[in-house]
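Lab notebook page, bench 4
Experiment: in silico fold of construct C2
Operator: M.H.
Input chain length: 131 residues
Purpose: comparison with the prior construct
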Amino acid sequence: MALPNTVKILRILLYILMGFVAIAVVGITLQQYPGSVFMQVLSLLPAMASCVQVFYLQPGRSAVRITLTVTLTVYTFGALYGLVMEQSPGDVVGLVLGIPMLVLLHQRSSREWFAQAASETAGPPSRQAAN
């Protein structure tokens, strides 16, 4: 099965998120963002974890789909919290990237692609000849 369009778009959005994470890390390093460094780094951890998983997007890796769902959900809720509670306009980017990635991740074609190789390689259990 070829790479579905939903997974292609998901991969592109993860690369875009990776670019924003790199910009944020440089901004934190140069101390251009207000607030404590601890909170800044803590808010970037789910995004960093999501970015790393772009290299593991392969058919049959249902665990990557699950962990990507968890990290993107935490990242999106963090962005929503930052937007509502701290009124940070930069968190709009987190919502604009996070919500579509979660939707794409749970489309039927994406689910089938992630489950594809696992079902193809799973065969009947091997039986040992009884002596």
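Observations: The longest helix spans residues 5-29. The chain has five helices and no strands.
Next step: discuss at group meeting.
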